[in-house]
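Complex 254.
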Amino acid sequence: MPAPVIGITPDITRESAAHGLTTRLALNLDYAEAIAHAGGIPVVLPPVLEPARFLENLDGILLTGGGDIAPYRYDAPTIHPATYGISDVRDEFEIALVHAALNADVPLLAICRGLQVLNVALGGTLIQHIPDQIDGALNHRQQELSIPSGEPAHPVTIRPDSHLARIVGTTHLMVNSYHHQAVAELAPPLLPTATAPDGVIEAAEIPGATFVLAVQWHPERLFQHYPAHHALFAALIETAQSRAARRATVVEQK
Ligand code: MN
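Predicted structure with manganese (II) ion bound:
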């Protein structure tokens, strides 16, 4: 059986290098480690081809965390001063990738910014800065608290009849938290599947899709020690396996 190939979206930055200003890709290795550990082949997707071209050669997609989405993409009239790290190239590539993946029913796991990209791609909106827009919000940036990296920070309550609940095997889960933005209006057909105690949407999925699952936390920083977080990657790989088998059959017939 061929191992499923999972495309991972990198961060895209403009940086000065010895030869001048250049566009660079960056990826925290733990995303790739989590995919490899679950039995997938991780590959990084540079924004140089139409997403559909990539999808012909992929069995699943992992949308990663990163900077904020340009607020005009969800029709926000202003940019909050705390909004940072906007990359138009990345926004455009990932939004197009979401549409292509949904059209082709390619399994999709979206993490942190990935949940926000999925929501914006489908017409939803974002809270630009949680502390200014939710009274009594938790601090969702655990780096500002004394919670070590690699440890969970706050609980989430999971909808019992969700795909997420089936995967993690519980309706109460401790998660880590490295975000200052969150979903405001969730776009249909996304269904909210987990919330923090302050009401922040922490997960969403598309009921009826083969596998479209998004979380606001970072399971790639927890998977080594917490089986419920590893289970997210294992479920993606398991679902991607049938697409990998189909693709192998098509190649043999050619
Ligand atoms: Mn959080």
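The pocket of manganese (II) ion is lined by residues 140, 154, 177, 179, 196, 200, 202, 216 (CB under 6 Å).
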